[in-house]
Amino acid sequence: MFTCRAVHSVTGFCSCRSDYLGSLLCLSCPPSGSFAYLTIKDRLPQILTKAIDTLHRHKSEFFEKHGEKGMEAEKKAISLLSKLRNESQTDKPIIPFVEKFADTDIWNQYLEYQQSLLNDTDEKPRWFYSPWLFVECYAYRRIHEAVIQSPPIDDFDVFKEAKEQNFFESLESITALCIHLQELMTTIEDLEENQLKNEFFKLLQISLWGNKCDLSLSGGETSSQKTNIINTLEDLKPFILVNDMEHLWSLLSNCKKTREKVSVTRVDIVLDNSGFELVTDLVLADFLLFSNLATEIHFYGKMIPWFVSDTTIHDFNWVIEQVKHCDHKWVSKCGVDWENYVKMGKWVYHDHIFWTGPHEFCAMFHVAPDLYAELQKAHLILFKGDLNYRKLTGDRKWEFTVPFHRALNGFHPAPLCSIRTLKAEIQVGLRPGQGEQLTASEPNWLTTGKYGIFQFDGPL
Ligand code: F6P
Ligand code: MG
């Protein structure tokens, strides 16, 4: 049983409701020094300052494009972001959204719900006395609000430059990966079943470690893949704490064997970061098609800039375009193939506002039934990254040995697998003693991104 020590000044309770097992990760429990607390206290102001600086540096571009109006808009966006930075740093009440956008009502209703947890007092939820997942998502939604309140620069992505830099800095590793894929494509017919499985496992692991490259953990600082990742896989194996890759293989190879009966095998990938990680996901998706383990891949990205490096449709198209225009002919061939898959409908990209909302995934069935129904069409769903894991498990302080199935709390649209490097103080489904042992030898094992998991849920 976990007990929160952050007693709310008015209600006597903390909104994390930590009087039951699996309570929410709260910013105020323990009051300071937790990873959650530091992401808001230190990392968020750093990210906001970088966003402000980016707007500043684009001043002349805004002027060239929109004249005086562009300059005024830049000033407005900067002042709104500075206000946001001040609100968060001084623990002000969390305020409703004002600008009309697709999810404004959903967000404001959620804010009312947070308020209702404070037992109908006039006290407002505040930055440092609220559940972490909610506050962090709220911060990114507010960054977006600052931009859309500043036309004509309201389509400016303050994180675009950082995402592009991540791609360019990882170019060597991207090149090696694309060449590897093309070589594999030419030999695929000659591979025995076991060899094919090994290649599948290799690409899964590349996609896992690609998740180290997110830009929110680094406070927006560059975090790219500078070495050839393929050569490091063996050394990284001991750091995979939950390894359900065999389940993925049996599921997809069985689908392939029964393909005459069911003509389609659909794998859905809920994307995370753009740049290097996105390339690893596209390489995996390409392999799934040409190995015949899947016949259709559906991708889900974010509708607004999110957690610095998350993939939007713009990033998705931009990465494919960059790969297509690479000098190396085999790398460029990957880009051409990927563009064709999209044109032919073998790759389908979906947007949904739910992914940038405040809700954990167990609420999807009620909050976004259309998205839930879409996911139900998949034979397998891969959830990339840490934030998706937090939303899958409700960002709760689960015991390490709680089964993944239970932590999903009724979210079972289709067989699913989380592919994630650990960057938040949450992990379920470990062997008895495994978590405690790691804590004793490496106190920060949950948050450095050094460890990873393939955690599967579904019928075996
Ligand atoms: O800001 C910290 C955090 O929320 C962590 O959970 C994680 O480090 C990061 O943001 C997002 O990681 P990912 O890109 O893997 O979802
Ligand atoms: Mg991310």
From TrEMBL:
Coiled coil: none annotated. GO terms for biological process: DNA damage response; methylation. Residues 39-438 form the Damage-control phosphatase ARMT1-like metal-binding domain. Its EC number is 2.1.1.-, 3.1.3.-. Its cofactor is Mn(2+); Ni(2+). One of its GO terms (molecular function) is metal ion binding. It comes from the Eukaryota. The keyword S-adenosyl-L-methionine applies. Keywords: Hydrolase, Manganese, Metal-binding, Methyltransferase, Nickel, S-adenosyl-L-methionine, Transferase. The keyword Transferase applies. It catalyses: L-glutamyl-[protein] + S-adenosyl-L-methionine = [protein]-L-glutamate 5-O-methyl ester + S-adenosyl-L-homocysteine; beta-D-fructose 1-phosphate + H2O = D-fructose + phosphate; beta-D-fructose 6-phosphate = dihydroxyacetone + D-glyceraldehyde 3-phosphate. Pfam families: ARMT1-like_dom. PROSITE patterns: PROKAR_LIPOPROTEIN. InterPro entries: ARMT-1-like_metal-bd_sf, ARMT1, ARMT1-like_metal-bd. One of its GO terms (cellular component) is nucleus. PANTHER family: DAMAGE-CONTROL PHOSPHATASE ARMT1. Subfamily III proteins have a conserved RTxK motif about 40-50 residues from the C-terminus; the threonine may be replaced by serine or cysteine. Belongs to the damage-control phosphatase family. Sugar phosphate phosphatase III subfamily. Metal-dependent phosphatase that shows phosphatase activity against several substrates, including fructose-1-phosphate and fructose-6-phosphate. Its preference for fructose-1-phosphate, a strong glycating agent that causes DNA damage rather than a canonical yeast metabolite, suggests a damage-control function in hexose phosphate metabolism. Has also been shown to have O-methyltransferase activity that methylates glutamate residues of target proteins to form gamma-glutamyl methyl ester residues. Possibly methylates PCNA, suggesting it is involved in the DNA damage response. This is Sugar phosphate phosphatase. The lineage of its organism: Eukaryota, Metazoa, Chordata, Craniata, Vertebrata.
